[in-house]
Amino acid sequence: MYTDETWFQREMDTMFRPAWHFAGLASSVSEPGAFMTLRLLDEPLLIVRGDDGEVRAFRNSCRHRGAPVTDQPSGTCRGLRCPYHSWTYSLEGVLKHAPGLEGYGRDELAGLGKDLLQVPCGVREGLIFVHLGDPASAPTLDAYLGNYVSTVAAPHRTAEMVAVQEREYVLDSNWKLYVEVDMETLHTKHIHRGSIGEQPVTMSESEGNWIGVYHESPHTPALHPGERDRGFPHVEGLSGKAARGTHFSILLPGFFLVTAQDVMWWIHKIPDSATRTRVRVGYSFPASTLEREDFDEVSKHYYKRLNQVVEEDDWITEYQQKGLNASTPGCYVPEEHVVHRLDNWILDQVLHVG
Ligand code: FES
Ligand SMILES: [Fe+2]
């Protein structure tokens, strides 16, 4: 299951295509005309906030002859103009101007059905999600997320968060290895000896397509042990467990989101093949923290700790992959019960059980 391309294709068909996927933060497209581009499941996407304030997602492919409408990672525009032959679309994706079709009036252009192709998109507590599968059989976003928003995102006020760093790279490992390592603490004292140390967690009560664990502590987990009382202040207005600790959640299949009292970060796993995984990493702080005079000085310590842990997990997942071609059956120990649950969820999806 970690090396076989036939199994991988079944995962794509039964889990990745039918899923809702994280695309970015609504705060990254905060004004009308703000846009960002990304690739998900090998499809180019364009996320734009319209003049009406709505966030929409489009296939980033011109309706003339298919060039990307833009290849800028992000920016702001008054309309969307394809660089090839300058076909132009409104922020809502409507074809407005089509060189080569000058004889066509506005209504005739509308009748061509050549507006940008929209994909289902929804925003919950500042998190943008898109759906790339068959819309006819898609679950609603709320049904997909279950109680994630009410249990984690809303109490942690994720809508306050602004992305400060984002990057993307590819690892030579199966995507499941990285999701598994996110969900167990057995490796922490071995792989993250100097960066995390011990971090006891309890399992969250999840309904819907997410699983999570919770670590209770008044101090941020996002600084090195010994520095943790030197973090930024907590986000104002946190409630319940969000005020007392950190949720580590997997929004299935591959979006790992950590919501702490002072910071939010994610490690998004999108498979390219059975043995290659695209990883999108992002760090975010509340807007009020970005305005602090000590932001640059203090945030450096966060980046150092967060980068170190990500690099340690990048390393161990690629290392683990090298042993998996041997097809040697393994096992879970009791401390890995969350991994066991995660892997059972994957089996249920792929084998259509449950
Ligand atoms: S391909 Fe976009 S205008 Fe021709
Ligand atoms: Fe780890």
Descriptive account of the structure:
The protein is of the alpha+beta class. The chain folds into two domains: 119 residues, Rieske [2Fe-2S] iron-sulphur domain (Rieske Iron-sulfur Protein, 3-layer Sandwich), CATH 2.102.10.10; 205 residues, Naphthalene 1,2-dioxygenase Alpha Subunit, Chain A, domain 1. 25% of the residues lie in helices and 28% in strands. The protein is built from nine helices and 18 strands. It has a seven-stranded antiparallel sheet with strand order 12-18-17-16-15-14-13. Strands 5-2-3-4-9 form a five-stranded antiparallel sheet, with no helix packed on it. It has a three-stranded antiparallel sheet with strand order 1-11-10. Strand 7 and strand 8 form a beta hairpin. The protein is globular and about 70 Å long. The relative contact order is 0.14. The model has no long low-confidence stretch (mean pLDDT 95). The structure holds FE2/S2 (inorganic) cluster and fe (ii) ion. The site of fe (ii) ion has 5 residues, from loops.
Cα(first) to Cα(last) distance is: 19 Å
Structural class: alpha+beta
- Share of β-strand residues: 25-35%
CATH H-tier superfamily of the largest domain: Naphthalene 1,2-dioxygenase Alpha Subunit, Chain A, domain 1
**CATH architectural designation of the largest domain:** Alpha-Beta Complex
Radius of gyration from the alpha-carbon trace, in angstroms: 21 Å
What's the total number of strands?
18
Largest sheet: 7 strands, antiparallel
- Give the overall shape, derived from the CA principal axes: globular
